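Anyone opening a protein record will find just a pair of labelled lines. With that in mind, the following record should read easily:
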Amino acid sequence: MKEHDSGYTASTASRRPFELMYTERYSVQADAYAREKVLKAYKGGEALKRLFEKK
């Protein structure tokens, strides 16, 4: 997140500063990547939108 807020990442530099809205913890990095893929795969980001609405 520090890289995003610093502007180091060009694709997100214009949308700073960032606020952490949701987090999940995994002990195995492969599990975290698999979960991220599932969340991003839903059409139009609907899975992520639903998670944010619950908060």
Summary: The radius of gyration is 13 Å. Residues 20-55 form one domain. The chain is about 50% helix and 0% strand.
